[in-house]
Structure formats: C-alpha cells, structure tokens
C-alpha cells in the first residue's frame, strides 16, 4: 500500500536530493521534511479514521494550491537567479525542511484517501503496524531518491535542468490534485 500511494513522491525526492547536491545539511532537510510531511499525512489519516474530521472533504482538493504556489515561487527564484551573482553558501536551494514537508503533505491527498478507510477497519495494533512499515518505507524512499539523484546521468540532467524541473513538477502535482479533486469545478 505504501509503494502504490507514494510513487509520485519518489520523483519529488529525487529532484529534491538532486537540488541538495550532496550537501549534508540540505540532504538532512530533505529527509526530515519528508518524515515531517509524511507524519502529518499519517496523523490526519489516523484522526480521520477515528472520526475526527480536520478538513471537510470539499477542502482537500484545494491542498493542490500549496505545491502550485511553491512551484511558482521556485520558478520565480530560478528566473531571478539568472540576473544575480551566485552565492553557493547562502543560496536558496529549494530544499528547506518545511518546503519538502508542505509538498509531501499537499501531495498526500491520495494517501489520506487510501489510508483512512484502511485504518477505519483496522484495530489499534494493525494501525501501529502500518505506521511502522510506512516509516520504514519513507527511509527506503529517501535512500532510493538519494541514490537516483547521485547517478551520473540523472545528476547531470538535474544539475542542468533541475531549476526548471522542480517548478514544473510542483505545479504539475498541484494541478493534478486540483483537477482530480474537482477544485474550482475543474
């Protein structure tokens, strides 16, 4: 169940790790952000399964606005950086902990949609088991994303096109969430 609902996260993680380019603090922020975002998805799913409604069903598709906004910001930053001298030490690499967490959470509507009904019929011990497996799955996903970003062909492509790929993927994810959820009557 984890793998099926998180295929799209693999692409995002690879892009984020490519942007981190082996810088340990940035890599740490990607991993921590992924865990934070995914933990929020699991928490909302568990609460949803227990009957607590955090968001009305009609509001969930509008979470797609978050990655669209982040994609526009990333595109704006990439465009703006063409006209400014590079500062490698302090540059915004698009891999802030909260940035990754928000993208992960916003992209988790499908996860929540799958996990809530599963958790609703599972006992407490089963839910704990699912959560443990999911947290191990996040570690595996992070390792795989890091590995893929480090492959020479992928790393070269990401270093050349990553500043374009990240905004496009973020906006695409956001639009997919908006369209699939019929937000704004789409």
TrEMBL record:
The keyword Cytoplasm does not apply. Keywords: Membrane, Transmembrane, Transmembrane helix. The chain crosses the membrane at residues 35-55, 62-79, 127-149, 161-179. InterPro entries: Cd-R_transporter. This is Cadmium resistance transporter. It comes from Mycolicibacterium brisbanense.
